[in-house]
Write a structure and sequence with these properties.
With 221 residues, the chain is of the alpha+beta class. The protein has five helices and seven strands. The chain has two domains: 49 residues, no CATH class; 149 residues, Sandwich (Jelly Rolls).
Length: 221
């Protein structure tokens, strides 16, 4: 086979290199290169970038708390002794399917004929927005109450009277939202001698007191 003259052989071997070099020049310095913002003339559009390079990342959802605190140590011992006379101050934690997000402690006791029951629950959601939605759901299910100022980001309290077989039981519920967490307190009482329930004010103030302790425990970590 006849050999190509040297200049032609070099041309044949270097042609792909030359093509790549020309293409690189066109992209970096030539007419296809993007014009820097500082060098564009007024009115000249920028070369579009891919969505992955130009689109801003989604803002992270706002939240403060990542896990529910230990509920049985969230209420001060003196509060337990006052609200649930005769109860063990250590309480009893209720088993949870997701202890990172939901935890509940319960105290109850019968002293003489007076019976008291206190539940304190924590629920940590993924964001403030989800906690707000859960708060609205809780408060809409227990209407007839009112707001509690100065407690968490928002708080609601309601007291109801239930009578069964002539025995009255008065129950108070306080729902508090603090950032992405909910604190729900339930406090009720009965008198088995008189079959009457404690006064509304006693139950309401007791539930709010326990809620204040619980919110402080949440905020203090």
């Amino acid at each position: 086979m006849r050999s190509l003259p040297l200049p032609l052989a070099l041309t044949a071997r270097l042609s792909p290199v030359a093509v790549l070099a020309v293409a690189g020049w066109a992209l970096s310095s030539g007419p296809l290169a993007a014009t820097p913002a500082a060098e564009r003339t007024p009115g000249e559009a920028a070369v579009p970038q891919s969505p992955s390079a130009s689109a801003p990342t989604a803002a992270a959802e706002s939240k403060t708390y990542s896990a529910a605190p230990a509920p049985c140590s969230a209420v001060a011992k003196k509060t337990i002794k006052s609200l649930v006379p005769g109860a063990k101050t250590g309480g009893k934690e209720i088993p949870s399917t997701d202890a990172e997000r939901r935890r509940t402690c319960s105290w109850n006791a019968l002293k003489g004929y007076e019976y008291r029951w206190l539940d304190v629950s924590f629920e940590v959601t993924a964001s403030d927005e989800k906690a707000e939605k859960a708060y609205r759901q809780h408060t809409s299910e227990k209407n007839g109450g009112g707001t509690v100022p100065g407690l968490g980001d928002e708080a609601y309290s309601v007291v109801n009277l239930v009578t069964e077989d002539g025995q009255q039981t008065r129950e108070g519920t306080v729902v508090v939202r603090a950032s992405n967490a909910l604190v729900v307190v339930t406090y009720n009482g009965s008198d088995f001698e008189t079959k009457k329930a404690p006064a509304t004010d006693e139950i309401n103030k007791g539930a709010i007191k326990a809620a204040k302790d619980a919110v402080a425990a949440l905020q203090n970590g």
